[in-house]
Amino acid sequence: MDNNKCLLIYGFNQEEKEVLERVKDQENLGKIIEITDTMTSMTLRNLIEGPHFEVVSKTLPKEKVILFNNLSDNELENSIRAIRGSLEAKPIFAVVTPTSIEWTFADLLEHLIEEREFFRKRQK
Hints:
Layout: E1 6-10, H1 14-27, E2 31-34, H2 44-49, E3 65-69, H3 73-86, E4 92-95, H4 105-123
Helix pairs in contact: 1-3
């Protein structure tokens, strides 16, 4: 986390990435790091701090994910509101934590999907 204010994004098409770039600029959110399929076995720390090494990765579900790193509560709230108002897609939002920064993106995505399904079932 270490003062590396950024968004890590996964699964977005070019048009959606352009929307996210505009929101990032409007909200002054640092940089955007796009996670590609060949980077999913890297830890979040390595993705944030770089360099990025492309490796063979396992196939992941087709999800859109936005991870927020080192944003204030106000920045986080404003950026989520701006993204929801600008994108048709319904991405998974998460914040990089001291625990998750050591996880691979693939492991985190699996956990986030399980968590989302748990909450969906509880709402029924």
